[in-house]
Amino acid sequence: MKRIGRWIYALVLLAALVLGFVFNSENASEVTVTLLGNVLPTLRLGIWLLIFTLLGLLLGFALNLIPAMVLRRSLTAERKRNEKLEQEIQTLRSQSLRT
User: Which of 37, 38, 40, 46 would bridge 33 by S-S if both were Cys, CB 3.0 to 4.6 A apart?
Assistant: First the structure.
């Protein structure tokens, strides 16, 4: 099953590359981009759009990474707490119930 997932991932990546190449070739006009008052180099429109799309994806990934790390830390703490409680339950079960 893992092998099929890798093949699907490779096919999706290949399709994205082909679509990016086609997108770039269809948007071949040269443009100059001004960003926050800075004039960036003149490149093809398709390249600029792909660059800013990738930057947006990376920024979104980075912003989602912070809450994921907080949740992972919380999950680790809860697992440790759960293990401690399981050990306590086992200790209580192994004790005799004499009064």
Answer: 40
Cβ atoms 42, 31 nearer than 8 A: yes
Which of 29-40 are b and which e, b meaning 16 or more Cβ less than 10 Å from the residue's Cβ? Answer: eeeeeeeeeeee
**Tokens of residue 4, six digits:** 């099929």
Within 10 angstroms of residue 46's Cβ, the number of other Cβ atoms is 19
Q: How far is CA 45 from CA 22, 50, 54, 58, 83, in A?
A: 12, 9, 14, 20, 56
CA–CA separation, 48 and 26 (whole Å) = 13
Per run of 10 residues, the mean pLDDT along the chain (length 99 residues) is 84 86 82 87 86 90 91 95 94 76
Separation between Cα atoms, residue 12 and residue 8, nearest integer Å:
6
